[in-house]
Every structure is written in structure tokens, then in C-alpha cells.
Amino acid sequence: MITIEHVRKIYGRAPNEVVALKNVNLEVPKGEIFGVLGQSGAGKSTLIRCVNLLERPTSGRILVNGQEITALSGGELRKARQRIGMIFQQFNLLSSRTVADNVAFPLELMGLSKTKRQARVLELLSLVGLEDKANTYPAQLSGGQKQRVGIARSLANSPDILLSDEATSALDPQTTHAILDLLRDLNKRMGLTILLITHEMNVVKQICHQVAILEDGAIVEQGRVSQLAALPSSRLAQALFPRPQNYSVQPGATLVTITFAGDSASEPVFSTLARRFMLDVNILSGNIEAFGEERIGQLQAEFSGEQVAPALAYLRELGLHVEVHN
């Protein structure tokens, strides 16, 4: 659906040039929600703006639905952009227009008749739960309502792809959760492919199927969220499950980190270990996170007893990732 190949973006000229993107390669499958996670200045906004050529890459190619969008200009580019919706952090609504007129604006540019515009606007406002706000002005709306208007407007042309540029970072946590639920519902109901950028781990946890971590303009890690979260060595897992430092382990005990995924996250593993292998198990720290419908957890514990080795083998037979620290 979206293919980004060896994309570089440079601002300015040597010796004062700034390299915003460094050989970025991404593949966003059709119908998935793909997150790009990174801190401020990592190049996230530049990357997403390159996808619809609001920023043109210095080099590399971007393909959307198999069409090389980086090779287009003029009328061909405008036509291609109609298949790509975009929502923004600061909403970008027209303050002098009502909610209905904001949503209708892209349809006006397309030359759609007034009757067809009105029908489409009502359909879109119903989709985002704002059918009662059609004649309201943006100044009278909450932040979450403004973003719902922005989402409705981005869907006016029935796009295949939705780009989200930090769309929830200006919202409170409860409103963020509601907007993300709406995006996930649109993804499922319409088969909409969503590429979003964010600096918030909770956004990735709540709705993303895949994630790429961007640092200083380069992709340093990418993959399915659930798989990366279950891999202790991944940057994503280390951010989700920070480990306490300076453990004080009892003499003769074995310090282990155990990662649980799927159904195993709900199993009474430690009580089984105590009964079956006569172990003393002391849990030092731990956390369980939900990724959509899947749960992943990580625990640090010390094992004491004469059957530590067979107990660790048993855990690995269950499909758990076991890391021994001493």
C-alpha cells in the first residue's frame, strides 16, 4: 500500500545542511495501522509529509498503491493526493466555517454538487459521532470534537490511506483514547490503511499493528508491535518494561527475567514452579501490558532451590523467553 525506498531529505546546503531523513525504508501493508515512534526532532513529521509530497524527498522513491508518487507533479499529483487523507495535531479547521462547511471543503474543491456535498457531509458527521454539530463553529467545540471534524474532513474524498501527524498529542488522555478508538474502528470498518506518527508509546500500544522507531532521521527498529514487545532485547520492550537497577540477589539465588505473551500471560506459572520443582520464587518487579487483544508481560524474579535448571527448561518448553542474569 505504501512503500518508502531509500528516502533521504536534506534541508539547506553544505556546510550548513541538515539531514532530516537518512535512507529510510518502510513497507506499510494494506489495511494496517502503522506507527512511526520517535522523539521531537527525529524526523517523523518530515517523513509523513513526504508521503503525500507536502515535502519532496531529496532522493529515494515513495509508492502509493503501486504508483510512484515521487514521480508525479501538477494535475497527476493532485489526483493522487485525493486518495490520501491527512489529520493534523492542531486540527487546521477554518474558523469562519461551520463544522459541516469544514467537512464539505474538499468536496467543493472537487466540484461536487451541493446536494451530493450535503449528503456526504451528513454521512461523515454520523461516522465520527458529530451529526448534531453540523451548524456549530470550531470555537464552540472541544479539542476532541475538533479532531473528529478533522477526521471527517480527511475522509471526504473516500481515501485509501489516512496520514496522522501527531493527531492526539494536543488532547487529554481520555479524549486521546476515544480518538484512537475511532481510528481503529475506521480501520476495521473501512479497511483504511493508517500511517501515524507519534512520540507517545500508549498510542502504539493501543492501536498499531506495526511500528518503526525513528532516531535522528534513521529507522533503528521496526516490526510487529506484539513481536517486538515480546523480545526483551528490542528497544520497544526495553521502553515498555524498564528494569530496576542494582538488584540485591540473595546468596545462591538465580536472577531471571521472564517474558510472557498471549495466553501464558494469564497462567499461574510461578505457583506451578513452586509445587513441581520445590522452588522458592521471589518476584522483584514486573508489568503486564495490553496490545489490542494480546497481553504481554515481563517479570524479574530470583529462584532458589535445587531444581532451578529443570525449572528454567520447563519455562522454555512453555514458549516463554527466559533470560538468566547470573
TrEMBL record:
- The answer to whether UniProt assigns keyword Transmembrane to this entry is no
Cleavable signal peptide:
none
The keyword Lipoprotein is annotated on this UniProt entry: no
* GO molecular function annotation: ATP binding
Q: What does the UniProt keyword field contain?
A: Amino-acid transport, ATP-binding, Cell membrane, Membrane, Nucleotide-binding, Translocase, Transport
Q: Which CDD domains match?
A: ABC_MetN_methionine_transporter (cd03258)
All copies of domain ABC transporter, residue ranges: 2-241
Name of a matching Pfam family: ABC_tran
- Provide the protein name: Methionine import ATP-binding protein MetN
